[in-house]
Fold this protein.
Amino acid sequence: MRILFIGDIFGSPGRRIVADHLQDIVKAQGIDLAIANAENSAGGFGVTPAIAEDLFGLGLDVLTSGNHIWDKREIYDYLGRTPRLLRPHNYPPGSPGSGCVIVKQCAILNLQGRTYMPNTDCPFRAADQLLAELAPAVKVRFVDFHAEVTSEKIAMGWYLDGRVSAVIGTHTHVPRTAERRQPSAGIRFRAIEMDDPASRDFTNKASRSGPWRQRRVRSPAKLAAPTSATWRRSLNQATRFAGGV
Ligand SMILES: [Fe+2]
C-alpha cells in the first residue's frame, strides 16, 4: 500500500496547493491512500465543515488534526458525524469525535504529545488502547503524532516500534529531517538531528525504552548514556547534514 501524507495544510495557500497538485501526485505515485493534517486549513486556525468537505472532495481520504481542531466551534458536531476527520484520541472521554478510523484496510491513528502542549490524557496509553481494539486483520497502521518536541515524537516512534507501520510527526510547521526506519523493519537507522543522542542508540535497549518510559509512567527512568561510538556516529551524520546545507 502506498500512502501519501501531507502535513499541515495551512490556510488558503495550503488548500490551493492541494487542489493544484494532489491528483497529479496520486496518479504519478500510484497512491492508494491520501491523508493530510488539516488542523489549520481554515485561515491558519482550525477547520470548518465546508473546508473539510472541500478537502475530501479533492481526493483526501482521511484528515487528521491536533490542538487547533477546537478553534472553530462549528466543527464540533461535524466531528461527531464524520469519522474520516480525526482529532487526537487522547483528549478526555466525552470530547467530540475520535482519533482512529479504518479506511481501505488501513487504521489511521491520531494522538497528541504533552510536552509544551495542552493537557491531555497519556498518548502512550491511548495508543495501547487503540491498538488493542484493532482487529489483527488490519495490518497497516499509520500514526499522526501531533507534538511539539522532536524527542517526544522519537519516544513514540520507539514505543510503537514493531506495532505500527509508520509514525509521522506534525504540529511544528517546520520540515525536519529526522526520518528513520526502525530496527524492527530490519532496515537501516538514520538520525540527523542532535537533540537526544541517547534516544537514537538503538543498539542499547535501555536507551530505546528510557525516553518513552519516563513519559508514560511519570517516574524516574534510568537513561543510559550513548556509547562513544553512537555519539561519534551522530556527530558524523550531523556534520554531513550540516555540510550539505
Ligand atoms: Fe498543532
Notes: The mean pLDDT is 82. The helical segments are 11-29, 49-57, 75-81, 123-133, 150-159, 205-217, 228-243. Residues 39, 66-68, 146, 171 surround fe (ii) ion (CB under 6 Å).
